[in-house]
Amino acid sequence: MKSTNENKIVIILFCILLSIFLLLLSYKIVLLFTHTTLAQENVFRFLAGKEQLSARFAELEVSHLEDVARVMKYVNYVFYFLLLAVTLSITYYRKDKKFLAKLFEYGGKVTILSMLIISGLSALFFEKAFTLFHALFFPQGNWQFAADSKIIQTFPFDFFMSISRNIFLLSLFLGIVFILLGLYFKYVHGNRN
After folding, report:
1. Which domain holds residue 80?
2. For a surface tag, which of 40, 106, 143, 147 has the fewest beta carbons within 10 Å of its beta carbon?
3. What is the pLDDT of residues 96-113, one digit of tens each?
4. How many structural domains are present in the chain?
């Protein structure tokens, strides 16, 4: 039997991994189901390395899109690492339904809490959050464009607000699903022991 401190560490790590995983899963699902224009679809296919850009973007815009493609590649690596980590954690504790219930319940609660904090701050300060995000992931500064530029016309500010809202709402929903799974394991399987 693991000590209480070891269990707390496992729960904390699982909560962190799960909340980031559910955020990235939501990002992938939202992008998959977001209605896009032909120009936006072409850019997404370019970012995935599946085709060349059909529109004539300025050199700095193409440079930024290449940087976005690199960031998205690293996001994929993180996503699959987290998928593996969460899956291995659930598999390892699958027989201990009581502990699995705690992992799911706390993981769901931390996901909801973190999404509420992030979405609340983003709603109040979306432009600042957008700027901070870009400054963090694109420190070379090639992400600021004039309002009439091709890239801004293709991806207006409202596009990012809409997908951000949908990502956070889906993350909240998935957090609730994990809480319900935790309660299921706690009350249904817990009563069998």
Report:
1. 4-192
2. 147
3. 999 999 999 999 999 999
4. 1
